[in-house]
Amino acid sequence: MREAAERAFREGRTMYADPAGLPELRADVLRWLGVEDRYTPDEVVITAGAKQSLFNVFLAACNPADCVLFDAAPWVSYQPLAVAAYAFPVQVLPTRPESRMKVSADDLRRNLDLRPYTKLFLLNNPCNPTAQLYSADEVEELLQVCVERRVYFVLDRLYWRIVFDGVPFPEPRVDDETRPWLVQIDGLSKNFRRSGGLRIGWTVAPPDLARAMVNLQSHYTSGPSTPVQHAALAALESPYPTGLREELEAKRDRIRAWAPKLAGVDVWPTPATFYSFWDVRGALGTRTPDGRVIRGSIDLATWLVERAGVVTAAGAAFLQEGYLRVSFAVPDEELEGGLAAAAEAFAELA
Ligand code: PLP
Predict the structure, then answer these.
(1) Residue 67: strand, helix, or coil
(2) Which residue's CA is the nearest one to ligand 1's atom 3?
(3) Rounded to the nearest whole angstrom, what is the distance from the C-alpha of residue 104 to the centroid of ligand 1?
(4) With a 6 A CB cut-off, is 158 part of the ligand 1 pocket?
(5) Are strands 152-156 and 266-267 parallel, antiparallel or unpaired?
(6) Do 127 and 268 touch, CB atoms closer than 8 A?
(7) How far apart are CA 27 and CA 13, in angstroms?
(8) I need a labelling partner for 105 at 20 to 30 A (CA). Which of 32, 181, 237, 303 fits?
(9) In this predicted structure, what is the pLDDT of residue 97?
């Protein structure tokens, strides 16, 4: 991947390129997603990371004040990106407490009934921060609602290669019925090592929406840097690196082994991603040894940094107070040391 980018620089392949992205990269994206027989490269837009794909979709699909629906724990940038596109973000809350924040077709329907100006429902599967995975049936039901109600079903599938326990990624149905409403967002940043800073993402969308997004980005970024697109081309044309998912699955198992030692924490099962989601409502209202009250997830995250040197993301950042998200994409020694220190810090809260 790096060599390909270096070569492109050295050979002077640094001119303006097609604002939609290199045609050969767009063709590779379709193969990577296994949909090369159902789309043409004109329905693919290469972007500067999945973030730009998301922003493009909000800008291209929404009129000012149109509603965009997110699932129950929206990733931190969803809201700011929607607001920057003058859209109105709404979090769909699940009615089934046992669903681990997964939204059902009925939850979605109810929100669509309440908000006729909704343009899209954005689903992150597998989900950052909760690490939960919607099954193929659950995805199909949500997609079906979107098709019936004529709203876009935007699938952010950025972690789709990091699904554990031999479970296949639940692909959305792509056929004549779903294609006009299905938008898929993906990129290099999570499924490949050390690639978040390359800033390459992509969107596969219905032709009119794809065209609008290309027009738009032709005016604001002209597409991502061409040598980096050559790096992406090399990544997608090489065999997918084995070992990444297995390595992360082993780290997931390490956390699972620590879970009973974390007082007041309910560690959620982690079927996918490299995040462990902790229900810490049991630790709220406790006090640190120096008398400070832990009122919410931000206080707790601050305590863990101060006392244990462990950085977590507060659930409040994902509109879910009472939870913490822990990334386990770190070397094993750091993971073990961090978990031991966190367990001690939790034990000190009274
Ligand atoms: N979507 C989700 C769910 C993410 O977790 C992230 C990054 O953390 C992004 C989108 C943005 O990805 P990128 O770095 O490719 O812009």
Answers:
(1) strand
(2) 128
(3) 23
(4) yes
(5) unpaired
(6) no
(7) 19
(8) 32
(9) 81
Give the CA count within 13 Å in the CB-facing half-sphere of 96: 10
Dig out the tokens for 152 from the structure.
Answer: 């876009």
- The b/e string for 132-144 (b: 16+ C-beta within 10 A; e otherwise) is bbbeeebbbbbbb
> How, if at all, do strands 88-91 and 67-70 pair?
parallel
Round to whole Å and give the CA distance between 261 and 39: 49
Contact 199, 192 (CB under 8 A): no
**pTM (two decimals):** 0.97
Q: Which structure tokens are listed for 103?
A: 């939204």
**How far apart are the C-alpha atoms of 208 and 263, rounded to whole Å?**
53
| Residue 293 CA, ligand 1 centroid: distance in Å | 33
The per-residue DSSP string of 143-188 comes to HHHHHHHT-EEEEE-TTTT-B-TTPPP-PPP-STTTTTTEEEEEES
pLDDT tens figures, 239-252: 998 899 999 999 99
Residue numbers in the chain where pLDDT is lower than 50: none
CA angle, residues 124, 318, 112, in degrees to nearest 5? 60
Q: Tell how far the Cα of 50 is from the centroid of ligand 1, in angstroms.
A: 6
